[in-house]
């Protein structure tokens, strides 16, 4: 079973990837929502909507959104009319912004924002009907452990949907993405977030991630059933899904 290559935001010798990812998101949390939508030209909202549609078949009442950040995926999941959504992240900075967002939009009665580690989830087996992760699994320190934990907390017959960046293979999207990720994202990310490393880490972590068939095989090896992958926006991102 292949393991994820470890790429850290700051490359410090004596710190874990997990600690550096949390530090990075704490640093950029105040400007994250703006930058996210700005750098993706708003297309990320369409991707989340398509990913949420993958869950309709299981009509989930209890959803876990991992690497929730400020809660955009959790908010997108409200269209499924669940009774409860838990958004979980290792960055308190991102969660603070998310809690303010939920309170302002009056979503806090359904969506709770909690601190937690995706590789050591504080939930019993089979607790959730569905689980989502948006642009988060490539940040796991131990990819297989995190993916197995996700499977553990979902009930039999429940569904897991993972939205993650990928590397486009076809002209002209391949050329556009290469230019955008090498120049546009680091340039604006550095100046707006004030964190030089954060938006250089994004394309580096995408490049290191085992995407496509490689990632599908990892999910199958861990016990995910009916695993599917679907490219969106010419392969800039991929929606993966699996059943427990």
Q: Which helices and strands, and how do they pair?
A:
Blueprint: H1 17-39, H2 43-53, E1 62-66, H3 72-76, E2 84-89, H4 92-105, E3 111-115, E4 128-134, H5 143-152, E5 154-165, H6 173-193, H7 198-208, H8 212-221, E6 225-232, E7 237-243
Parallel strand pairs: 1-2, 1-4, 2-3, 4-5
Antiparallel strand pairs: 5-7, 6-7
Helix pairs in contact: 1-4, 1-6, 6-7
Concise description?
The chain is of the alpha/beta class and 244 residues long. Helices cover 43% and strands 20% of the residues.
Task: Tell me what you see in this structure.
- The chain has helices spanning 17-39, 43-53, 72-76, 92-105, 143-152, 173-193, 198-208, 212-221; strands at 62-66, 84-89, 111-115, 128-134, 154-165, 225-232, 237-243.
- By secondary structure, it is an alpha/beta fold.
- The protein is 43% helix and 20% strand.
- The longest helix is centred in the N-terminal third of the chain and has 23 residues, at 17-39.
- A seven-stranded mixed sheet has the order 3-2-1-4-5-7-6, with helices on both faces.
- It starts with 16 loop residues before the first helix and ends with a strand.
- Helix 1 packs across helix 4, helix 1 crosses helix 6 and helix 6 (173-193) packs antiparallel against helix 7.
- The chain is globular, with a radius of gyration of 17 Å.
- The chain has eight helices and seven strands.
């Amino acid at each position: 079973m292949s393991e994820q290559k470890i790429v850290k935001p700051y490359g410090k010798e004596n710190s874990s990837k997990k600690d550096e990812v949390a530090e990075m998101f704490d640093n950029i949390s105040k400007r994250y929502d703006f930058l996210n939508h700005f750098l993706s030209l708003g297309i990320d909202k369409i991707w989340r909507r398509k990913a949420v549609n993958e869950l309709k078949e299981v009509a989930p009442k209890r959803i876990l959104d991992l690497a929730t950040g400020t809660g955009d995926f959790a908010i997108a999941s409200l269209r499924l009319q669940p009774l409860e959504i838990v958004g979980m992240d290792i960055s308190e900075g991102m969660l603070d912004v998310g809690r303010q967002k939920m309170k302002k939009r009056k979503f806090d009665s359904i969506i709770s924002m909690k601190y937690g580690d995706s590789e050591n989830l504080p939930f019993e087996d089979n607790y959730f009907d569905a689980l989502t992760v948006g642009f988060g699994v490539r940040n796991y320190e131990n990819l297989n452990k995190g993916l197995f934990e996700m499977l553990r907390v979902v009930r039999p017959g429940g569904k897991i949907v993972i939205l993650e960046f990928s590397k486009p293979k076809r002209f002209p999207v391949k050329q556009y993405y290469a230019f955008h990720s090498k120049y546009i994202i680091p340039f604006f990310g550095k100046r707006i977030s004030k964190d030089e490393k954060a938006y250089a880490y994004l394309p580096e972590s995408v490049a290191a991630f085992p995407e496509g068939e490689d990632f599908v095989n990892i999910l199958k090896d861990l016990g995910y059933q009916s695993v599917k992958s679907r490219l969106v926006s010419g392969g800039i991102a991929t929606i993966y899904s699996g059943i427990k």
